[in-house]
Amino acid sequence: MLNYTFVQNIKVLAFPGAVGCFGEMVGTAGYKKAMFIHGGSLRRSGVADKVAASLAEYGVECVSFEKVKSDPPAELIDEGAAFAKENGCDCVIAIGGGSAIDMAKAINMLRFNEGSVMEYFAKPHVASPGLFVAPTTAGTGAELSTGSVITDTVHNMKLPLPVNNSMPEAVVLDPELTVSMPAAMTMQTGLDAFSHAVEGYCNLMSNIMMDQICEKIMEIVAENLPVVVKDGSDIAARAKMQAAACMGGWSLTNVYANVGHSLAHVVGANYHLVHGSACSYGLPPVLKHIAPAVPQKVRRIGEILGASFTGSETPEEIGVKAADAYISFRDGLGMPSVKEANIVVEDLDTLATLVVNEPFAQLTPMPVDKDAAAKMLREMLAL
To answer: Which domains, and CATH codes, for the chain?
Structure first.
């Protein structure tokens, strides 16, 4: 089967105030009753009422499902799907961070596919139209990525559910939705977007088309993330970060990630560390690990972050310089030391095994065995 290297089929509406267009978008597509997934902050800010009014203007009824959880558990997905069916919803709208959008993708999938969400990690699903989303953060890229990260609470694992047939019909990028993000969340989500670009740039699926996109994402984040962390009201910089994050999600669709996200998923699931923070702690050891396989790409990453190279560096030295440049960038934003997370690892061997067996680890340009995974975990967690 052909594996096309440059695909993007989802319509994107991107401008300040675009959230007010949901009614026209959903109504003109022929839908009549929406399940509206969002958190309490959207109701308190008045955005939920604005969306509901926009929908009503175009004859679309909506019922709210205000049960968004970080790292959504499989049981909540099943509950949401039952809610949609019980209320006769013919479409799903989600406005929120990556967790809300991941929930929506999985819930909408179950409207057309019987059973529990956990069944679909091992079997295909039929096409599931009727999904419309808007991110309120600028990091996960969940609006364009073809995975939905679900927590298996039985085995305490975060798993990427393939939802290729259940992607949004349209995406709204409204930078005004991100203005209320606190500086810490702005930083964490922005570093997640940077990790998506790095990992898409440096894996076995990378290609000449997506490399250009990934480089540009890194450049946008390097330039604009410090701006929005310092001044969250800068709409122009917020819009650029939102576009970069969205393109980062697109890169995940085309070229996926590497062991950086394997580390983040394993550590995040076991120690409840915020995903963007986990990605930021894991990236330096990953850069050092992959530098012998892709030294020119790791050097380019370092250059984007301000590192200087003479041209005489060994691949290992390139990895160290790039990692140091990233640490300087990350810590300059205000990222606290991983030691402040107070993570106590009792069984590093088991964690390393989980990393090796995590799907994205297989796409890393340098092989990842247990020794390599353990080494990266030790550096990531300052053990």
So the answer is: 11-178 (3.40.50.1970), 183-380 (1.20.1090.10)
